[in-house]
Design a protein that fits this description.
- The complex is a heterodimer of chains A (112) and B (110).
- Chain A is mainly beta and 112 residues long.
- In chain A, 0% of the residues lie in helices and 51% in strands.
- Chain A has no helices and 12 strands.
- Chain B starts with a strand and ends with a strand.
- The chains are: A mainly beta (112), B mainly beta (110).
Chain lengths: 112, 110
């Protein structure tokens, strides 16, 4: 079945460092791809999404590009802030239904 | 708009007890789902519903029941709690593949 594999954490960076969190997927159809963020004690919030190959999702300085040839959707940010400390989840959703598969999550800690 | 609400926020049960986790949404979304979140395993789908009166099993349905009598409400029932059901439970509603999550219920079964 469809699945998502993402880089294991935890990841610790200094403020203003460059962030990459790797995500690859396996899918039989044409999935939509998502990054969700979970701040401590809260539910998941949608960070960005891409619905077809070569689409780039972006929000709050984060970007990810849907790469069909490498089945990847890596999350990047040029300069992280302390407030970006959270757990990040990569996910896919088959466009034929609403079922969503999540990666295991990557905990990011940004130190001042 | 309250979005997706869940009650209670925390619950402790003894093995064998039953309880219902409540979930409600005010966005008129047809699709709703329940997930459990365990360390290192991401979120796993328990049950989902594509509309009132229609429910189906997800990845890990054993030990849980759901019903969907209205568009707004989607309660999750634990029939006989087991320590393996200790987890954080999230309810979500969905519009065009974009999921909106509730704040979660942290359940401990002793």
């Amino acid at each position: 079945g469809d699945s998502v594999t993402q880089m294991e954490g935890p990841v610790t960076l200094s403020e203003e460092a460059f962030l990459t969190i790797n995500c690859t997927y396996t899918a039989t159809g044409y999935p939509s791809l998502f990054w969700y963020v979970q701040y401590p004690g809260e539910g998941l919030q949608l960070l960005l999404k891409a619905t077809k190959a070569d689409d780039k999702g972006s929000n709050k300085g984060f970007e990810a590009t849907y790469r069909k040839e490498t089945t990847s959707f890596h999350l990047e940010k040029g300069s992280v802030q302390v407030s970006d400390s959270a757990v990040y989840f990569c996910a896919l959703s088959d466009q034929r239904n609403n079922d969503m598969r999540f990666g295991a999550g990557t905990r990011l800690t940004v130190k001042p | 708009n309250a979005g997706v609400t869940q009650t209670p926020k925390f619950q402790v049960l003894k093995t064998g007890q039953s309880m219902t986790l409540q979930c409600a949404q005010d966005m008129n979304h047809e699709y709703m789902s329940w997930y459990r979140q365990d360390p290192g395993m991401g979120l796993r789908l328990i049950h989902y519903s594509v509309g009132a009166g229609i429910t189906d099993q997800g990845e890990v349905p054993n030990g849980y029941n759901v019903s969907r009598s209205t568009t707004e409400d989607f309660p999750l029932r634990l029939l006989s709690a087991a320590p393996s059901q200790t987890s954080v439970y999230f309810c979500a509603s969905s519009y065009f593949h974009e999921q909106y999550f509730g704040p979660g219920t942290r359940l401990t079964v002793t």
